[in-house]
């Protein structure tokens, strides 16, 4: 009863949290500091509590001989391992052994046993494990494609990504001796440095190196540098020439489309399908199919939509107009035209063009203001602002009006344009 009590479990979890905080609070520089001394004594207390917990659980469940015993649970084995490491570390004076104490943080995984009592969490964990077991085929296909592109990359770029630290030299034979460079571009501070024939950080000189280079491309981390280096590549053992092979960029584009986009989407889609299939397993004994169950759920959860219809005759006419399909199409066309006008603005635009854009901006703002006023009349403010989209439209209109007002108050700051 003690080890299964909620208070006992929460208390142990609290001590796990304190233990983790104490590990993070240790002074990594002054190992003999007063703070580390206090935390070391606290570590003895925590380890004693965790050891007592394991003894109580072994007494309650048994060690390992029968089904349901302590050591037949993976989380309990993790607890035993972490506490054992802490006990062993007390007898070792090496500071490196303190690193293993961080494993104690893994004890917070024990509350995951509550997954068996939470239907939703249990479903998620089951889906994750099923996806991991069956994802091997996708990994194999991705690896084969990676290997194929790596072989192509070796044929295209092997030995072609080398460059001399002195950009005036194009071959390894010329890249000898010293050359003069200038610190921070200042001609008054010349520096003599030796020339060196250097390879790219990521290269295609062999298949393994090519697979690593392509992996960095698939992560989109710093890959433009490799792309530009490949575009500038000349021939083997010769330095780069600017934009010598622009067409070689097609290789990287195809690789990104197939690996980074296509295969990644397959992976995500496979996980989603796995979740759906596991969800259907719960209804395998149900007489209703999926569509029938959805119909029943919809019938149970459906609620009538509330729609405001004014009783005042004049207000009703305005309400009828703003809810009509023609009015919606008209406002859509106005929004599209306004977007086109915004996209036409550019640097160095003439004064005439800028004046025309300002006039159109005020015209569209006026039309959208009229729309907002009509809807306020039709729905009244209470029902108008209940719709989040109406509130969003109102904020945009008010912001546009404020922008026009500021522009008119300070016209000199907004009339910079090209005389042409």
From TrEMBL:
<feature type="domain" description="Ion transport">
    <location>
        <begin position="325"/>
        <end position="408"/>
    </location>
</feature>
<dbReference type="GO" id="GO:0005245">
    <property type="term" value="F:voltage-gated calcium channel activity"/>
</dbReference>
<feature type="transmembrane region" description="Helical">
    <location>
        <begin position="353"/>
        <end position="374"/>
    </location>
</feature>
<feature type="transmembrane region" description="Helical">
    <location>
        <begin position="7"/>
        <end position="25"/>
    </location>
</feature>
<keyword id="KW-0406">Ion transport</keyword>
<keyword id="KW-1133">Transmembrane helix</keyword>
<keyword id="KW-0407">Ion channel</keyword>
<dbReference type="InterPro" id="IPR005821">
    <property type="entry name" value="Ion_trans_dom"/>
</dbReference>
<protein>
    <submittedName>
        <fullName>Voltage-dependent L-type calcium channel subunit alpha-1C isoform 9</fullName>
    </submittedName>
</protein>
<feature type="transmembrane region" description="Helical">
    <location>
        <begin position="248"/>
        <end position="275"/>
    </location>
</feature>
<keyword id="KW-0812">Transmembrane</keyword>
<dbReference type="InterPro" id="IPR027359">
    <property type="entry name" value="Volt_channel_dom_sf"/>
</dbReference>
<keyword id="KW-0813">Transport</keyword>
<keyword id="KW-0677">Repeat</keyword>
<keyword id="KW-0597">Phosphoprotein</keyword>
<feature type="transmembrane region" description="Helical">
    <location>
        <begin position="123"/>
        <end position="152"/>
    </location>
</feature>
<keyword id="KW-0325">Glycoprotein</keyword>
<keyword id="KW-0109">Calcium transport</keyword>
<keyword id="KW-0107">Calcium channel</keyword>
<keyword id="KW-0106">Calcium</keyword>
<dbReference type="InterPro" id="IPR050599">
    <property type="entry name" value="VDCC_alpha-1_subunit"/>
</dbReference>
<feature type="transmembrane region" description="Helical">
    <location>
        <begin position="45"/>
        <end position="65"/>
    </location>
</feature>
<feature type="domain" description="Ion transport">
    <location>
        <begin position="6"/>
        <end position="282"/>
    </location>
</feature>
<dbReference type="Pfam" id="PF00520">
    <property type="entry name" value="Ion_trans"/>
</dbReference>
<keyword id="KW-0851">Voltage-gated channel</keyword>
<keyword id="KW-1015">Disulfide bond</keyword>
<feature type="transmembrane region" description="Helical">
    <location>
        <begin position="326"/>
        <end position="347"/>
    </location>
</feature>
<keyword id="KW-0472">Membrane</keyword>
<dbReference type="GO" id="GO:0034702">
    <property type="term" value="C:monoatomic ion channel complex"/>
</dbReference>
